[in-house]
Write the structure tokens for this entry.
Amino acid sequence: METMTTKAMLERLNWRYATKRFDAKRKIPADTWSALEQALVLTPSSFGLQPWRFVVVTDQGVKEKLVPISWNQTQSAECSHYVVFAVKTELGEADLDRYLARMAEVRNVEVESLAAFRGMMMSTLVPPKPGFVVKHWAALQAYIALGNFMTCAAMLGVDTCPMEGIEPAKYDELLGITGSGYATVVACAAGYRGDGDRHATLPKVRFAAEDVIKRV
Amino acid sequence: METMTTKAMLERLNWRYATKRFDAKRKIPADTWSALEQALVLTPSSFGLQPWRFVVVTDQGVKEKLVPISWNQTQSAECSHYVVFAVKTELGEADLDRYLARMAEVRNVEVESLAAFRGMMMSTLVPPKPGFVVKHWAALQAYIALGNFMTCAAMLGVDTCPMEGIEPAKYDELLGITGSGYATVVACAAGYRGDGDRHATLPKVRFAAEDVIKRV
């Protein structure tokens, strides 16, 4: 299988930026979007538990309703596909068993053979130890998905903008998530940069490598 | 600039798995590692603030000392490069000003011209609003870096294993992070899978797309 060159990879990462204005007329082709959804699904997570839901918003009416509950940022309305990352707020035995059933199915083994793994997860996660906040742990996993998603999109030439400036509870309400056991933590707009986005050409601001990387 | 095909991207993501046993003799070439460090540096973050330090451990003695404080998992000892993700535990005006000074330098503008942006960051981050925990916010950003890092490594044919089963306070002590204003939150081993890793060929366990993706 073909790997990417370091040069091509760095070109894609340098091409990427937090897109402020999308070309509202340009939509992500179905096969490209399908690959990005698969990338989301393939994201690694703690114990493999995937404590998330990805809500993909393409309905224009809903995308516009997201603007006032996103600090009036317009990316949701102008982008092609808008992804809302929602995570589990609690975790119980049933969640572990749902995952173990899936593991048994995919790997064609008896669920009983996974007892040691189940015990390990139980002792760590259910009930949560003092100081362990399920929603925080799950949000961290969702941010792995966010990082993976933005990088994969850049590899395919799709622009993104991570959206932390949002009102999660109002997102939950609008998207019908409230009461589902999941809660919005972050979102990401995807599509293609618009001609008028001055941020596209601004030099990327990063601390010098020697200021953030320490070698031991 | 060349983009990746969806097929190549999905092949790389399916090739990736949480590597349990690395080939201890095989080291990541310098140019490949340099690109992965640059990928870390280029990771997007909230406001662009980069509230992190990446500690790259290649010293074999230190790599081995990490094993007992990583639930006795051996990845740190066997991998080529081991990255510890540490984040800011507090955030003050000086941190914002350090970032704004860098922005002014990179974009060749007067720092005074960034006053509105500074005000916006101050009102959101300094002092933290009730319920806003700097270390949690910073950890989320580090997990974007983790997701970006694992995906970039896969694109280059480098194996990784995210490491959450670690003792962060003992990491801080061993790596000289304690008291620096940063704290370890997660780690990631990188290198090349060993021949004997049975996890390499196990089918990947993911919930069906229709169970994690909701369309609106």
Remarks:
- Chain A touches chain B through 77 residues (CB under 8 Å).
- Chain A has two domains: 6-42+52-90+133-212, 92-127.
